[in-house]
User: Fold these one by one.
Assistant:
Number 1:
Amino acid sequence: MQEEFQVGAVASVHGVRGEVKVFPTTDEPGKFKRLRTAILRTEKGQREVRLESAKFFKNMVIVKFEGIDSPEEAQKYRGATLWIPREQAVPLRRNEYYQADLIGLRVLTDEGEELGILTDVLETGANDVYEVTLPDKSKVLFPAIRDCILEVAPEKGIMTVHVMDGLLEATGL
C-alpha cells in the first residue's frame, strides 16, 4: 500500500509574496486549509515544507510556504508535486479505499481464476468503474457495485470480482 499521496501540483507563481497556485489532485481540496506540512517534490529532489496559508481561487489553491518569500524563489517550484504521508490523509469509512491502493491489485474471479490487473479507477456519477487489464492487454470495466466487487483486499494485493453474464464476451474472451 502506498505510504504517501499526491495532493497537488504547483502550476505557477501567484503575486509578489512567494505564493504559488496549486492544482489540487485530491477529492478533498478543503483539506489544504488544515494542512500544516507537506513534501514538495521536484526533479532535483524533495523538501518538507510548512504551509503558512491556503486560500481558494477558481479551481486552484493559492498556497504560501514558509521560507519561500519571493516570486523568484517560488518559480523554482513550478511543476513540483505536493505530497502528504498516509497518516495526514482523509480518514476512510468502512468499504472505502484510496485509489492509489487499488491500482495494481491482482483481480481474481469468484471461481479462483486470475483475470488481470486493476489499472485505473474511473469516476462516474453513480459509482466508480474499475478498469482491469487482461493478459492480452485488452480491458474490461467492472462497476464498483456489490454484485460485481466481492472483496477488496489491498493488504493482500487482490480484488475478487463476480463476472456478470456477457461481460467478457464483449472483449472476445
Number 2:
Amino acid sequence: MPFITTSDQVKLYYEEVGAGKPLLFVHGWSLSSQIWSRQKEYFASRYRCIVFDLRGHGRSQPSCSGYGIEALAADVTLLFDHLELAAVTLFGWSLGSLVALAAYPAVRDRLTSLVLVSGTAKYCSAADYPHGLPPKEPRSLSLLLRRNPRKALDGFLQRMFFSEEQSERGFKELAREVLPKLPVSAETVLVPVLQTLETADMRSVLATITEPALLVHGDRDVICPADASRFMAGQISGAHCTILAGAGHAPMYSRPREFNSVIDEFLEKIYG
C-alpha cells in the first residue's frame, strides 16, 4: 500500500487508479477516501483518480503536531509534489473543501479547476456570515464524542442523508459498504479536527481563485447549508453552483449517477 511521509513524520495513505488528467479527491471529517469509491469506479476509465486519507483518518497515521488547517493543507501540497501533479482538478468535500481552499495558494499553478462538494469557506456562522451553523453545533458534537464516541459518530453519519435517501444509498449502506473498511478515528483525532472545522475561515481565498470552479450541494443538507455554496459561487469569479434537489450532505455517495453526470459535464468543458 502506498504511503508518503510528511515533514512531521506522519504516514499518509493514498491510492491512484486510471490514467489521464489527474483528479485529486479530499474527503471530510471522520470518514476516509473510501467515500469517493463511486467516483473512482466511474472516472478511472478516462482520468487518473487519486484519493488519500487525511492525517488521523482511515489508514493514515495520527499526528503528533496537531490537525490545524495549515497542516491539512500542507499534506495536499505534499501529495502534489510527491506525485508531480499538474493540470489537476481538485475536489473537496465538506471539511475537504476548507482543506482544498487552504491548499489553493500553494498549488494554484498546478490546478486546472476546482470542485467543492457540500462545501464551505467558513463552517460556523458569525455576525458577518449567516451561512453556517451556530458554533454550538461542533462544540456539542465534541462533548458527545468525549462521552460516547460511537453514538456521536453514528448520529453524525445518519444526519448526512436526507430521509428519502435512506432507501437509496443512505446510512445503512454506508455502514455496510464503507465503515467496515474504515479504521475508526480516535476521539483524540476527531475532536481537534472539529475544532479546526469550527475556526477555519477561508473566505479571503475565494476572490483569488481564477480557475473554473464548480460547487455542488444538496438542498436538504443539514450539516452544511446549501447557502454556503451559493455564497462561495458569488465570491469566485465565473463559478457555477449546482444544487441537487432532495440530496443531503454526501451526494457523491447517495446520488452517484446524478452527481457523476454533473461532474462529467464540467470536466468535459475543462478538458475537452
Number 3:
Amino acid sequence: MKEKVRRLKQLLPAGKNGVSICWKLGGYLFLLLAILLIIIWSLQVLLLDILFEHIQKREMLRLGTVLAQKIDQEDLELFASDIAIDSAVSVLVYKLDEGDARELVRVDLMGDTEVFFRPERIYEYYRKAALNDGSYAGKFAVGGYELKEGPLDFLAGKRYAQKDEIRLISTSIATDEEGGHYLILISAALLPLNSMVRTWNLQFAFIAVLMFVAVAVTVYLLYRKISKPLISMNNAAKELARGNYEVQFSGLGYRETSELAGTLNYAANELSKLDHLQKELIANISHDLRTPLTMIKGYGEVMRDLPGENTPENIQIVIDETSRLSELVDDLLDLSRIQSGTRRAEVLPFSMTALIRETMGRYDAFTHHKGYRIDVQAEEEIMICADRGMILQVLYNLINNAINYTGEDLLVIVSQTRTEGGIRISVSDTGEGIDPEQLPLIWERYYKEDKAHRRAVIGTGLGLSIVKEILELHGYAYGVNSTKGKGSTFWFEFPEYEEAMGSNGIPLA
C-alpha cells in the first residue's frame, strides 16, 4: 500500500505549475470583451460616416422610386411635400422635352436647391441615371460637382472640406403613360456628426467600464462555483493519496463538479475497502502460514531433540501441516491464474449429478471421523456443459465453506433442483448466518465476517473467491441467501444441457 501511495505522490505536480482555470477563463472573457468593444467602436465611430451615407443613399433611391410611381397623379406636388417633410429632404421634379427641362415640383426645405441644382447640369444628372438603370445616388458639392469616394478631390481649384458644403443627391428617371420623361432629384444634407460621435464616445467609455466590471464579477463567480470546488477537491485528492480515506470531496455548484465529487467520494470509499481487505488478507494469510510453520518447526525440534518422539503420529502431523501449506499456495496460484486469464475453461458435457456423488466420496473419511453429516438431494440425472475440473473445484469449495460454518448439528445439505433459470446447485449450512450488509463482501479474498480470524476446519479460506471467479468465467448466476441464526445457502445456476449446446452438438462458449 505504501508503494501505491508513493507512486500516486509521484503523479502529483511538484508545485503550482500552469495557470489556474479561473485565470484562463477570465483571460478568455476579457479577450472576448476587448474584441467586441473594438468591433462596436469601429462600427460606431470609424465607420459611422460610411454607414450613414450608405443608408441615406438607399433611402433616397427608394423615395425616388415611390415618386416615380406617382408621376401621373395631380397631387404629385402634395405627395412630394409629404415625403420631403417626413424624410427631411429637398425634392425637385423636371419634365424633359426635346432638350428642354421644365420644372414641375420644387420642395426646398433646406434652401440649397439653387446652389446644388444648377439648370445646366440637369441633363448630366439624367445621363448618370440613364447609365445606371434609371437611378443614381452620389455625393455632390456646390454647383452639382460630384465628389469621388475617398479623400476629397480638388474641384475648380477649391477643396470642399466642410460637410455643410456637400450634399447627398439621388436621381431617378420616370415615364408617364404617354411616354414623357421626367427627372426626379432628391437632396439630403450630410449631417455634421462630430457632436454625435463625441456623445457616443463618452457613452461607449461608460459602457466599456460597466462591461469590464461585469466580466470581473463573472470571473469571481466562476471562481466560487468552479475553480474553488476544484481546488478543494485537488487538496482532498492529495490527502487521499497520503492514505487518508476519511476525506470528503465537495463539488457543489454545477452538475459536472458535483458528479466529479461523487465519483471521487465513491473511489475513496472503494480504496478504503480495498486497503482494509488488503490488510486483512495479509494478516489472515500470515496467520494461516504461521500456524502450520510453527507446528512443523515445533514437531521437528521435538523429534530431533527427544529420543523416541520420531513416531508415525508426529510425522503425520508434519505431513498434514505441510499439505495445508501446499493447499494454500495452490489456491493462491489458482486464483491468480483465473483472474489473469492464463487458466481457461475447457468446456465439455458431463453429468453434474455424477460429479456431486464423486465429490461426496472425498468426504467419507472426514465425515466418519469428525461426525459431520452431508445430505445429498440429487435424484434426477442432470447434464452440464462446462469445465469439469473447475466445477468440481466450485463444489469442493462450497462444501468446505459450509463445513467450516455449519451449526452444532454438523449438517450440510447439497441439493440439485430445477428453476426458471435452469438448474440450481445449492449448498446449505445451519450456522449463525451472515448480516445482510456483509453479503456483498463475502466473495472477496480471505474475507471473514467475524473480525477475529479463526483457522478453517477444512480448506484455506480462499474458496469463495475462487468460486466467484470460476462462475463468472462460465457466465453462471450465483448468490447466497442467509438468515441470522438459521444458516446460509450458497447457490449457482447453469442452463439446461440442450440450451448450452449448439444445434450441431458443439458446446456454446
